[in-house]
Amino acid sequence: MGNQSAAAGRKSHLQHHFVNEDQQFESSKMGMWIFLVTEVLMFGGLFVAYIIYRAWHPDLFYMAAQELDVALGATNTVVLIASSLTIALAIRAVQLDKIKAAINYLSATLLLAGTFLVIKYFEYMDKFGKGIYPGQAYSYEGIHHEMAVNFFSIYYMMTGLHGIHVLVGMALIGWMIIKAKKGAVHSGYYTPVENTGLFWHLVDIIWIFLFPLLYLID
Amino acid sequence: MSTHHISTLPTLLSVAGALLVLTFLTVAVTWINIPEPFNVIVAIAIAIVKAAIVAMFFMNLYWDSKFNTIVFLLSILFLTIFVSITLLDTLFRDAGLPIY
Fold this sequence. Notes:
Mean pLDDT of chain B: 90
Helix content of chain A: over 70%
Largest interface: A-B, 51 and 49 residues
Oligomer: heterodimer
Order of helices and strands of chain B: HHH
Low-confidence stretches of chain A: 1-8
Structural class of chain B: mainly alpha
């Protein structure tokens, strides 16, 4: 049990209802996975709405997707992949007790997440400028289809919920930076960093599906 | 110990590299005109491969207790049930039910 000898001399995080640190770690991670399942199903509702509307109006989805900027969407995909890499590197650094490197990698992840939201902000502002709003506020004349608003309502709900998850992820990563600075995570106990990583990778996975489904309709 | 797998640097970098290549590929396939149902199938297939790579090697499912993989796959199974049963209604509505 290498991790326990490494943890020796540090404050034990073991709760009395677990057999040992490993079982506690495994249980916490399993709990995180079950939470991620509920996340998949929450986004699932929006994916179902997308699939139904695309099956009903394939021509609309083709026309409306031309309004989205593929270059910005692709840039954001690359940004999120890079942030997934940096948070994986942060976890590796914590596991190896390189706390300073871990803080740098977490800060890089935070910066990349911020970049994603800034790009998203410019995309939204460009749409709002044309009168492309969700629901009844929609006033854009450029798409000659009576259901045009439906594509953008789905677009705003999917990217909006995803954006909220990016914000939550940034808050969690910021919290992990504070924890690392306090010396509260190390090779013997890094459960919160691991679970934050799992959350962040799921946010990445959801974007991996949103990008081709919304931007790349040809 | 499998509980605390530490990924090597080359693993993490090559996973990120593979994801970038697949991202380029998913954009590149839109430049050639693939006929209607297959363009969606190709786009989703690439996305599934990317998601699987992230789940296996960034989220460590490959080295983890297999129970976590089962939990994750169950969410996909239930999503598939959700999609297919809903489509059984909405795809066959020409018998007078409105579409929106």
